[in-house]
Design a protein that fits this description.
Elements (H helix, E strand, L loop, with lengths): L1 E4 L6 H10 L4 E4 L2 H6 L2 E4 L9 H5 L2 H10 L4 E4 L1 H4 L2 E4 L11 E7 L8 E6 L1 E2 L14 E6 L1 E2 L6 E6 L3 E8 L2 E4 L7 H12 L2
Amino acid sequence: MIAVVDYRAGNLTSVMKALDHVGANAIVSDDPGLVAKADKIILPGVGHFSGTTTLERAGLRAAIQDAVKRGAPFLGICVGMQWMFESSEEAPAVPGLGWFPGECGRFRRDFKSPHVGWNSLICDGRSRLLRGIASGSFVYFTHSYRAPLVSATVARCEYGGEFSAAVERDHLFGVQFHPEKSGAVGMKILESFCGL
């Protein structure tokens, strides 16, 4: 069973429709006990990085960490991916999980922000999540902050400089774009996650 974490900041309806489309056994939950026992976890995210403080208050941060420690695959989407880093310039006092190093930063001021719409991926071919996704494939973004390039970056995007479009290490996966809004490419990515 896949737990889609409800912390009042995710695009839950679209994510659940997409998961239903690919035949996933998924449930939306804000119950730390259920999340801790899930086979896989998806953390969608829309809005401000400070919204992740709800995860701490609700006991969901610890539940997610417990599940990941026992090997449950985790997929962070948009702000959910940014939370996997140490911090964000958007809310400097709010700690991320620190699974990946670095701080998420704002786009350059001479570029329109938020970055909204379709943009292409530059894939390096190492990713299990992006297996079968050709470099140059288009996916849908909507974000004002971006994650830095790190050793775990498996796909980059160019907008006001390169940033991490997808990160991956072991059973940790993050995508800055919205697979649930990215058509056939997004559905293929969600299918890959479900099959891990």
